[in-house]
């Protein structure tokens, strides 16, 4: 069935196809549960996940189709990235398929309707599983004032999220990745951790704070990030975001488009980062493995090198929802 749907979707612009898919998923929420998958519960960050396979941020930026995505069998869902106020993102076209490699390049630039709209959508959703909300900064906010945007979003989403992801690794917002390094990262994490503690006391509930990092960090940079995560008692880390590297797709149509590369070509790089991060962290905080999962074997490899949970998005563009079921039924978690 999905190959026919994919053929129709691939006949139109990638962003239009995504918009169509979101509308279809909004309708799906009205149907009886589509995929009755076995529970494979896992406890991570003090939360119980129905299974270890999650939807990565970027698929549902505004939280419009939470109930529809839940019907596909995900054990958790992450919405966003959301910013304090609505923004259009970068000029179109800004999404490009690389079908020969099952990859996607995007330079969206955090296009979203703003945190208030997302919160209203989350409040309307009937989904009662683990929900992550991914937060970012507006493009017009100077990098030195980034903390202000993250604090605004953290305060607004705190009551409605199971966990909150701090996205400092998109390559499509100018200078954003500079927040991953040294003093800038320490200052950001220290302030966000303090706010998390204050919100925890105010709301009577502790919501884990997760950092999403880039797959383009070298070993020394990964070690430095790991040290900061542990020192500031951050609850988890997502490895990782899209890559600027084109080594795995060199020569393919659209390969030189500016933006972040996701999908199958990212898989090996992502797994390497997870492995290095796991060695640095030594189990002190959990890793959510994200980037290029396209099969049970590719997902299992991420678990085997240290991931506690998995997230996917791009693979669904090429394979449809069947991959979710395959992963849920076959991924073997480490004891």
UniProtKB/TrEMBL annotation:
FMN binds at residues 57-61, 81, 134, 167, 212, 240, 263, 292, 313-314. Substrate binds at residues 61, 106-110, 167, 172, 241-242. CDD domains: DHOD_2_like. Its main location: membrane. The active site is at 170 (nucleophile). Keywords: Cell membrane, Flavoprotein, FMN, Membrane, Oxidoreductase, Pyrimidine biosynthesis. Pathway: Pyrimidine metabolism; UMP biosynthesis via de novo pathway; orotate from (S)-dihydroorotate (quinone route): step 1/1. Pfam families: DHO_dh (PF01180). The keyword Oxidoreductase applies. Binds 1 FMN per subunit. One of its GO terms (molecular function) is dihydroorotate dehydrogenase (quinone) activity. The keyword Flavoprotein applies. Its EC number is 1.3.5.2. One of its GO terms (biological process) is 'de novo' pyrimidine nucleobase biosynthetic process. It catalyses: (S)-dihydroorotate + a quinone = orotate + a quinol. It comes from the Bacteria. It is found in: Cell membrane. Gene3D superfamilies: Aldolase class I. Residues 42-332 form the Dihydroorotate dehydrogenase catalytic domain. One of its GO terms (cellular component) is plasma membrane. Belongs to the dihydroorotate dehydrogenase family. Type 2 subfamily. Monomer. Catalyzes the conversion of dihydroorotate to orotate with quinone as electron acceptor. This is Dihydroorotate dehydrogenase (quinone). The gene is pyrD.
């Amino acid at each position: 069935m999905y190959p026919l749907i994919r053929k129709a979707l691939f006949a139109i612009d990638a962003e239009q196809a995504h918009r169509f898919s979101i509308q279809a998923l909004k309708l799906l929420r009205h149907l009886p549960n589509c995929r009755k998958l076995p529970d494979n519960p896992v406890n991570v960050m003090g939360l119980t996940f129905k299974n270890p396979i999650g939807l990565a941020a970027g698929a549902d930026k505004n939280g419009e189709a939470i109930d529809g995505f839940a019907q596909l069998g995900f054990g958790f869902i992450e919405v966003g990235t959301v910013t304090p106020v609505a923004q259009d993102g970068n000029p179109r076209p800004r999404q490009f398929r690389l079908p020969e490699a099952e990859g996607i390049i995007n330079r969206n630039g955090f296009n979203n309707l703003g945190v208030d709209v997302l919160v209203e959508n989350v409040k309307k959703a009937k989904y009662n599983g683990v929900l992550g909300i991914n937060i970012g900064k507006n493009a017009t906010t100077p990098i030195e004032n980034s903390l202000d945007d993250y604090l605004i979003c953290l305060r607004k989403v705190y009551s409605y999220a199971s966990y909150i992801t701090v996205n400092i690794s998109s390559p499509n917002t100018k200078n954003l990745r500079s927040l991953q390094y040294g003093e800038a990262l320490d200052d950001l994490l220290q302030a966000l951790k303090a706010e998390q503690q204050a919100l925890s006391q105010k709301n009577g509930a502790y919501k884990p704070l997760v950092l999403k990092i880039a797959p383009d960090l070298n070993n020394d940079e990964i070690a430095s990030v790991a040290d900061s995560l542990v020192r500031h008692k951050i609850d988890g880390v997502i490895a990782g975001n899209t890559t600027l590297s084109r080594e795995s797709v060199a020569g393919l149509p659209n390969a030189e488009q500016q933006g972040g590369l996701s999908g199958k070509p990212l898989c090996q790089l992502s797994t390497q980062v997870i492995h290095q991060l796991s060695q640095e962290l030594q189990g002190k905080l959990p890793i959510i493995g994200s980037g290029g999962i396209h099969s049970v074997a590719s997902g299992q490899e991420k678990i085997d090198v240290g991931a506690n949970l998995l997230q996917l998005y791009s693979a669904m563009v090429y394979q449809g929802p069947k991959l979710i079921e395959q992963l849920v039924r076959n991924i073997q978690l480490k004891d």
